[in-house]
Amino acid sequence: MTTLWIDGSAGVAGDMLCGALLDAGGDLAGLQVELERLGLEGLTVRTRRVMRGAFACTKLDVWMNGRAADAEREHDHGHQHQHGHEHGHEHGHEHGHEPTSGDWGAIRARIERARLAPRVQARAIAAFTLLAQAEARVHGCAVDQVAFHEVGAADSIADMVGFCVLLEQLGVDELIASELPIGGGHAETRHGRISLPAPATVQVLAGWPMFQDGRRGELVTPTGAALIAALAQPGPMPSMRSQSQGWGAGSRNPPELANAVRVVLGQRTQATSPTQVRVIEAQVDDLPGEAVPALLQALLDAGALDATATPLLMKKGRPGLLIRVLATPAREAPVGRCLLAHSSSFGLRTYSAERSVLEREHVELQTRFGPIRVKLGRADGQVLHASPEHEDCAAAAARHGVSIERVRAAALRALEVPGWP
Length: 421
Description:
Alpha-Beta Plaits; 11 helices; 19 strands; globular
């Protein structure tokens, strides 16, 4: 399993996370190609080397039509709070207006149309969904009515989707992140003077460990918080073999602490190290069959580790379904709300469990049908399982007019690793 540990103890923002992954080995040219799928004309990404404290870091800059974008204005975290989202509750959402480019519905549609890799799309939607839910909760409007005139701008969409693209480039299967500094003080926004941390940031980080260290200003942005809370689980650096590390710079360079996010990429050294998860269950007997796939996908988009539906016989002999979801403790609340919102259940059962997983690795193999990615599962260095990626096999089978099983067999024949088969 390829693990990414994120040290956010100095603060977190979307561009800082992207810069750190590029510094750890991400491909800028490949990132540009994937971002172009979003259809945001004139968008380019560039990097530069900067010093933050004593450390050389990568700074990501987003450009629109040849001009540097003021990407995610709240990136100037640690200083004045500047993220002025327009949340929609003041802009006629109750009057049926058409979605703008910053509406959550429009952003989601853009991501879904972009022909991104399935895991990239799922991760990006999960992070944006969490942010939209937080904004809706804070400002008392429906999730679909939330408009992000700042976070929804092209440069910030690039940060959110770009982070997920870079995770896929580096083959990251698991994200673990440190406690986050919450900052303090006050900020002047277009909604008036507010206290920090920003309400949306606190809502996004519900259940996530946070700390105060006396620094003032906005240290964690809503975008950075959403990427961390939606995609990672909290914890210290696990036992791992480090492959690379990277430093992503923020815009400011305060003297008291290096304004940078550090990431460490590697492989866990304990392949079956157990981690705590929360199991969330609900029984339903009146959910239409066609609603089940949408329910399971909504749960995964909300950050669930897994979601299943099992037939069962309920009281009075009624056929029904047991919906069972696994989530990290940090994602239990939003995943539980999603299960209630998208199913017909009036309640949930929750309990803790231990989850052990094999060390995972993705390799790309050349076959007569083209390149096919294969996921390997190892324990103590031995390959126990090899699973060709279904999407790759299906696409190759369609191109060559053969069965998916023939493509799978070709991929497994091309696999040459010690101990397999």
